[in-house]
Design brief:
The complex is a heterodimer of chains A (249) and B (254). Chain A has 249 residues and is α/β, with parallel strands linked by helices. Chain A is built from 9 helices and 8 strands. With 254 residues, chain B is α/β, with parallel strands linked by helices. Classes of the chains: A alpha/beta (249), B alpha/beta (254).
Chain lengths: 249, 254
C-alpha cells in the first residue's frame, strides 16, 4: 500500500529466462514488492505455446501467495485449436483473471482473425487482455483499434504502451478513440515525460502501472510513476485504482 | 523506507551521468541550465556531472565547447569532457587538464567511426589518463565486452566507470566487475530484479555510483529505486554521492 492505495503491478512473468538472468524467484519478487509497497503482481508465462504448461506454472506460483499474485492466462495461435479450451480451463479452474498475448512469438498481426476466438472469449466474459506492443509489426498498438471496435466488452491493454515514440502515439490514439483500450507503462525506455504524456493525452483513468517483473525490478518502474510530474490523484489511479477496477480485485 | 506518492532524496545526491544539449536528430526536452537545475531540485539532486549530447555521435571537440555554457558558477554542475584517441581531441583535453579543469573524461563512442577499443588505437590515451589519475567513463552499450576487458587489463591503475549496463548485459556484468577490479558500475539502467542489492553485496557498495543518464532517461526513477533497497543510509549516501566524490578526487576502488 502507498497510503491507503492498493498498488497493483499489471505486468509480470513466471518462468526462467536465463539468457537475461531473469529468475522467477518468489522470495526475490516479494522482497522487491514489499520494499516499495506493491501489494499485488499480475503474472503470466509466455514461454509455452500450448498455454497449459505455462498456465500451470503460473497457477502454482499464485497458489503459494494468493493474496500477492494474480494469474493471467496465456495462449498462442501457433496452437490455435486448443486456445479457447485452455482459456476456459485457466479462468474457470485455475482462477485466472485476465489474458496475456505475445504477438512477437507468432507470425500474425494482433488483429488477424486467428486471434479472434480469444477476443470472443474475453468479450463474453468481460476480461482484459494485455498484449506486448512495440515496434514489431505484429505488435503494433494501432491494430488494437480494430479489436476494440469489434469486441466492445473486452478490454485491450497495450503492454509497454508501444515502448517508443511512434507506436506510443498509435497506442495513445487507440485509447483516445476507444474506451476499452488501456496503456501499461513498463519499459526499459524510460524517456523523460512519457508518463506525463500518457496521462495527459490518454487520461489517467486509462493508464496501468506495470514492471515486467521478474525481468525488471518493480521498484524502478514504480519510481517512474511516483517521480513523474502528475497529480497524486493521477498516480493513485495509475498505480492501482485502474487495475483494481479492470480486474475486479 | 515507506513509499509515498511524493519523492525526494533523503541523502545528498551527486548524479554521475547527466547529458545536456541537443542530439543532431533529437532536441532535448531540457532546454537550458535553469531547466536542468529545476529538474534536479524536483528530485532532490544537489550536483551533477554533465557531458554534452553533441559529443556522442558528432564531435567530442565541439561538444566539449558547447558544454561550457551549462556549467555556471554555483558549483552544482561539473564538466565531464569527452575524449577520443585523435590528436585534436587529446590536445583539447590536455589543454583543459593544464588549466586544472579535468576531473573525469568520457570515452567517445568510437564504434560510430568503426574504431575498436583496442590498445593499438587507445593505448596512448589510456596511458596518459592513467598517469594523470583521470577516471574514464565508458558507456557499456557502445562497447564490446571482450575489447573492454582485454584492453583495460593492460592499465590496472586506470579507474573506469562503466555506464548504462542493462538487462541485455546481465550475463557479463559480474565477470566484468571481477575482471576489472578498478572499475565502478554506474546504475542508471541496472534494472534486473534485485541486482542492486545483490551486486552491492557481492562486490561492495564502494564500487557503485548513482547516475540517472538524464535526459536520455527520466531523472528520478533509479533514485527512487535506490531509496527502496536494503542499503543502509550510510551505504545509500556512498552510492548517491560519496563514491563519485572519491573517484573525482583520483582515488580508485582499491
Amino acid at each position: 500500500m502507498i497510503g491507503d492505495q492498493k498498488i497493483i503491478d499489471f505486468h509480470g512473468h513466471t518462468g526462467r529466462q536465463d539468457t537475461y538472468n531473469m529468475i522467477d524467484d518468489p522470495a526475490a519478487i516479494l522482497h522487491a514488492m514489499d520494499r516499495a509497497g506493491i501489494d499485488v503482481a499480475c503474472l503470466f508465462n509466455i514461454f509455452h505455446p500450448d498455454g497449459t504448461t505455462g498456465n500451470d506454472i503460473t497457477a502454482r506460483f499464485v497458489a503459494a501467495h494468493p493474496d500477492r499474485f494474480a494469474g493471467f492466462a496465456y495462449v498462442s495461435p501457433t496452437m490455435a485449436e486448443g486456445m479457447v479450451a485452455e482459456l476456459t480451463r485457466a479462468v474457470d479452474e485455475l482462477g485466472m483473471v485476465a489474458i496475456k498475448l505475445y504477438p512477437p512469438f507468432t507470425k500474425w498481426d494482433l488483429n488477424e482473425p486467428i486471434w479472434h476466438p480469444i477476443y470472443e472469449f474475453a468479450d463474453e466474459r468481460g476480461l482484459a487482455i494485455i498484449f506486448h506492443t512495440g515496434t514489431d509489426p505484429h505488435s503494433d498498438p494501432g491494430l488494437l483499434e480494430d479489436c476494440a471496435a469489434q469486441f466492445p466488452n473486452a478490454n485491450f491493454v497495450a503492454g509497454h504502451a508501444g515502448n517508443v515514440a511512434e507506436p506510443r502515439a498509435a497506442a495513445i490514439k487507440a485509447a483516445q478513440t476507444y474506451s476499452n483500450v488501456y496503456l501499461e507503462t513498463c519499459s526499459t525506455f524510460r524517456t523523460p515525460g512519457v508518463i506525463e504524456q500518457l496521462v495527459n493525452e490518454a487520461g489517467a483513468d486509462r493508464i496501468l502501472y506495470g514492471s515486467d517483473i521478474a525481468l525488471m525490478d518493480p521498484r524502478s518502474q514504480l519510481g517512474k510513476i511516483i517521480t513523474a510530474d502528475i497529480s497524486e490523484e493521477d498516480k493513485r489511479m495509475v498505480c492501482g485504482g485502474n487495475a483494481a477496477r479492470l480486474l475486479g480485485i | 523506507m515507506t513509499s509515498q506518492f511524493t519523492f525526494g532524496a533523503r541523502v545528498p545526491v551527486f548524479d554521475a551521468n547527466v547529458r545536456v544539449g541537443d542530439l543532431h536528430y533529437e532536441p532535448s526536452p531540457c532546454r537550458n541550465r535553469a531547466q536542468l537545475l529545476a529538474e534536479m531540485d524536483r528530485h532532490g539532486v544537489e550536483r551533477a556531472l554533465i557531458y554534452h549530447a553533441h559529443t556522442e555521435e558528432v564531435s567530442p571537440v565541439d561538444g566539449n565547447r558547447f558544454l561550457e555554457e551549462w556549467l555556471g558558477e554555483d558549483g552544482r554542475l561539473f564538466p565531464q569532457w569527452s575524449i577520443m584517441p585523435t590528436a585534436d581531441s587529446m590536445a583539447q583535453v590536455r589543454g583543459l587538464h593544464e588549466q586544472g579543469r579535468v576531473r573525469s573524461v568520457r570515452l567517445n563512442n568510437t564504434r560510430v567511426a568503426g574504431l575498436p577499443f583496442r590498445p593499438w588505437v587507445h593505448a596512448p590515451m589510456l596511458s596518459w589518463l592513467s598517469e594523470n589519475r583521470i577516471p574514464l567513463w565508458i558507456p557499456v552499450p557502445d562497447t564490446d565486452p571482450d575489447e573492454l576487458v582485454t584492453t583495460l587489463e593492460a592499465f590496472p591503475e586506470l579507474v573506469t566507470v562503466l555506464v548504462g549496463a542493462h538487462y541485455l548485459h546481465a550475463l557479463w556484468v559480474r565477470p566484468l566487475m571481477n575482471a576489472l577490479p578498478n572499475a565502478y558500475l554506474e546504475l542508471s539502467r541496472l534494472e534486473p530484479l534485485g541486482d542492486v542489492e545483490a551486486l552491492c553485496s557481492e562486490f561492495g557498495v564502494e564500487r557503485f555510483v548513482y547516475g540517472s543518464w538524464y535526459d536520455r532517461y527520466a531523472m528520478g526513477t533509479m533514485l527512487f529505486y535506490l531509496h527502496h533497497t536494503d542499503l543502509s543510509d550510510a551505504e545509500l549516501e556512498l552510492v548517491c554521492a560519496g563514491n563519485l566524490e572519491r573517484i573525482l578526487q583520483g582515488e580508485g576502488a582499491e
